[in-house]
Amino acid sequence: FEAAKRHVLPPPYVVKPNANGSSVGVLIVPKGANSPPQQLATDAWPHSDEVLVETYIAGRELTVTVMGERALCVTEIVVNRDFYNYEAKYLEGGSTHICPAKIEPQFAKIVMNQALIAHQVLGCNGITRSDFRWDEKNNVLRLLEINTQPGMTVTSLVPEQAASCKIAFDDLVEWMAEHANTAIKVKT
Fold first, then answer.
1. Start and end of every ATP-grasp domain (predicted)?
2. Could you tell me the residue range of the domain that residue 178 belongs to?
């Protein structure tokens, strides 16, 4: 791995396995780190041979579910660990979801609109979840990624946001199945 031999970006930066989800294997190289993550060069690295390296973006973590042509709401994720890794997502006490986020309504509309635009521009279908970082001090919103296969567990954000919008879990799943069936028919 080139990323294990030298810093490929100035720290801080994020290293992600190319083929994992739920932040499994994600590493954050902090500002001032003297060397890159050495675990990438060992046999102990159980993940893919390809990694994504991205500049670390600080700020409040916000996320929006888009359901078809509708952005549901904004959730703020408050992490009780180093970052929103697998443990923070799935272990009790790892994070808190504030749904809807305690932000100004006008700003919430902007965040939801950005998620909807990203969903549309990328040609996404069905359900997506867009993750953002908001630098509140400088009032800068940055899109981190769009998750085209977001989680649907009890602790997942999509069912939580749907419930916040009065969409029952069964109705959400039924909508997803119907929409997937429609998308398949259109493409064949």
1. 12-178
2. 60-187
